[in-house]
Write a structure and sequence with these properties.
about 425 residues; alpha/beta; eight-stranded mixed sheet; 12 strands; about 45% helix; globular
Length: about 425
């Protein structure tokens, strides 16, 4: 690592950009990771993800241990102290190293005069850690979620909300999708075992493998050759309902980064697939995924609300609509979602989803299948959205996923299961 780079100060600045400026961690982190060694990349990610996962706890500690908040140009120091707390509480980094590196971070952000303050606060925490953590266990913010989201989860899942919150606060499992064009899942599992790794299957999704613990992709058997892809089990569930067939015209709408586009082609390599996404920049990931797996699809930039602009009058045998959503089912993978989303966003997303559903339905052939999917756990975006669509769309029929009274299948995040995900399968009569 270059001399003038301090990992703790980099993490503090990244977290500050997310919390104060509303930037997504997936935009902020990669350019920073390019500046450091591979070994440090993982630690930088762990510090950023970990602090965003446990933010209310770290905030609470700062309020307990400091008489007044750090504001203005000193705000980065607030996040640097959080980085210190996180290391002491949640990592195996030796406390003396965590302290020394965090205090040194003040120099990297040109606040050397505050080294004494940072050192003092962190040492005070070490002395009072036990009583402080006992007190936090009863604090309102102990669930580590914003209040608006807790209220929605409690209302939607009176029995299960605590389990959902707990799953959201864990590190996510690493799920893979075995490329059936190369190997059966069991054959690839044997290759994995030969490489000294253990994998577990999923009872519902035939291509899914969960690793015992996450590993860098380059050590997975055949990753570069396209034998396997990193994809959560629940996202793979879309194929169970879409059931793509060779020779069909299939639309993958809101397709970036292309995990589902490539899965369609692994299941039905002779299908004609059109992958569309509104975000030009994210479409580069679709091309990358197709290239690595040696697959071919037509890729276009386009807005789901205005299909005539990118497919004229074309109609499709199957449509996968992975709708833009709150992403409340994938918080454990993207803990910044808790701090980037606002309660008011939900109604705007519901409106957008309805507009896309209504716009794309005429482009489904009679007898065709549309799978509506989200990585959300909120009923407004899921069962309520589909209820409303069925009520206003006379030729739409729900199949294989729930009942007209409770439409769709809702997966909730689980430690040894996939992410929170929703599917509704609709047939055009």
């Amino acid at each position: 690592m270059k001399k003038n780079l301090n990992l703790r100060s980099m993490a503090a600045q990244a977290v500050e950009q997310v919390v104060e400026q509303g930037q997504s961690l997936s935009n902020v982190l990669p350019p920073l990771q390019q500046k450091v060694s591979d070994k440090d990349k993982a630690l930088l990610q762990e510090l950023c993800f970990g602090v965003l996962r446990t933010l209310p706890q770290l905030d609470w500690l700062i309020n307990k241990l400091m008489s007044r908040p750090m504001t203005g140009k000193q705000r980065t120091v607030h996040y640097l102290i959080m980085i210190g707390f996180y290391q002491l509480l949640h990592t195996r980094i030796p406390p003396h190293a965590a302290l020394a590196e965090t205090v040194e971070g003040a120099v990297a952000i040109k606040k050397p005069q505050l080294k004494g303050l940072i050192n003092g606060v962190l040492r005070q925490f070490q002395r009072q850690q036990e009583p402080l953590m006992a007190e936090f266990a009863a604090a309102e913010s102990r669930y580590l979620h914003p209040e608006w989201l807790l209220k929605r989860l409690q209302k939607a899942y009176p029995q299960q909300w605590k389990a959902i919150v707990e799953a959201n606060n864990q590190r996510p499992p690493m799920w893979l999708r075995v490329n059936r064009l190369h190997h059966s899942r069991d054959a690839w599992l044997k290759l994995l075992a030969d490489a000294g790794q253990q994998g577990f299957t999923h009872e519902d999704y035939p291509d899914a493998v969960r690793l015992e613990s996450p590993v860098p992709v380059h050590i997975l058997p055949g990753f570069e050759e396209g034998w396997v892809t990193v994809q959560d089990a629940s996202a793979q569930g879309c194929m169970t309902f879409l059931q793509p067939q060779n020779g069909e015209q299939i639309l993958d709408l809101c397709a970036a980064p292309g995990g589902k586009t490539t899965h369609i082609l692994e299941v039905a390599p002779e299908a004609q697939v059109l992958a569309v996404d509104v975000d030009e920049k994210r479409l580069s990931r679709v091309y990358d995924n197709l290239k690595r797996l040696g697959l071919k699809a037509q890729v276009k930039q386009g807005d789901g609300r205005y299909p005539a602009q990118w497919c004229d009058e074309q109609r499709f045998d199957r449509i996968l609509l992975d709708a833009p959503c709150s992403a409340t089912g994938v918080i454990r993978r993207h803990p910044d979602i808790k701090w980037l989303r606002r309660d008011r966003d939900i109604s705007e997303l519901v409106q957008l989803q309805a507009e896309i559903l209504d716009a794309i339905w005429p482009h489904l052939k009679p007898g065709g299948t549309l799978v509506y999917a989200t990585c959300s756990v909120l009923p407004d975006e899921n069962s309520q959205q589909i209820s409303a669509f069925l009520a206003r769309t006379s030729d739409a029929r729900l199949v294989d996923t729930g009942t007209p009274e409770a439409p769709g299948q809702q997966n909730l995040p689980g430690a040894e299961d996939g992410d929170g995900f929703y599917y509704a399968k609709l047939i055009k009569q």
